[in-house]
Structure prediction request, 359 residues.
Amino acid sequence: MAGGQSRGGGGVARGGQGGRAAKSGSHRKGAAIGSGGQRRKGLQGKGATPPAEQRTGHPAQRRAAAAAAAARGGARRPSAQGQAGSSAGSGAAAGGSGGTGAHSARRGETDEFVVGRNAVVEALRAGVPASSLLIAGGLEFDERLADARRLAGRAGLTVVDVGRVELDRLCPNAPHQGLALSVPPFEYAHPDDVLAATQAAAPGLVVALDGVTDPRNLGAVVRSAAAFGANGVVVPERRAAGMTAAAWKTSAGAAARLPVARAVNLTRTLRSFAEAGLFIVGLAADGEVDIDDLQVAADPLVLVVGSEGRGLSRLVGECCDLKVRIPMAGAMESLNAGVATGIALAEIARRRRLAAPAS
Prediction:
């Protein structure tokens, strides 16, 4: 009977049932009689999946290839950017590079891109440290393209001609207009290096930022800090602006001469600076004294500046030995971080000049 044959063991198994008789209507596919050992080979693995940088056609592999080409071409290193221009134009944000002392970049960071013809030309004129210039093929002549090639060549950057589709994949979030500048992650100093430089100076001065999220404000602070003799700038690692291309341009290249450190925990870093003998001064709208009356200006100190909106955070405020305010006329409640820091640093520098012994 058909039913008996279905339940019995006779006949050739069908339906991939592992040797069992196939049930009527089974949809599974089974191996033919005698696999010749192929099934055993099919059980053998192909090994571990290679990393993204080694997979042909993967974006990470293409970025690695471009970086290798830049290295072979003798791309200019960030430390050679000391003569950066003064352009502070805005453009698509990208990571910058520069600084002095012992540096470290955040683990897992990769090159970012400044995109758009105007933004790329401005970044090249400002001396933003970069590794390569990417130009899409088939573009009509444009003076900005010619300027970008000329500036990249003068800076010793590798110029890579890529397909339009490839550039779309590398820069999917902004209109690149056929032009992109590859910028490596900024190499930050360690807070201990800034502390050592401050202790070696007489007197030392550090600027610390608490919650400043606009990279152009950060760039302005770095520029003012360098102009008024600070020994370094400290920024938090999280929830704060980093040294992007916009910050680098606003700093007018000062980030190549002044160490910018990133603190994992700003509160802990400020406490360690205080233990090392530095006076912690917070700049706040509700400060106890005016910046004009800052008696400790000539002593080693850290000037802490908060964000324009919420000012100093509670924990950072508790670390301050003193809070000062900038006296203002009218109903203006606050200044942005870049302007406020410049005013405070100028007053500190003035008081230090007055306190300096006559030569």
Remarks:
- The longest helix spans residues 337-355.
- The mean pLDDT is 77.
- The chain has twelve helices and 13 strands.
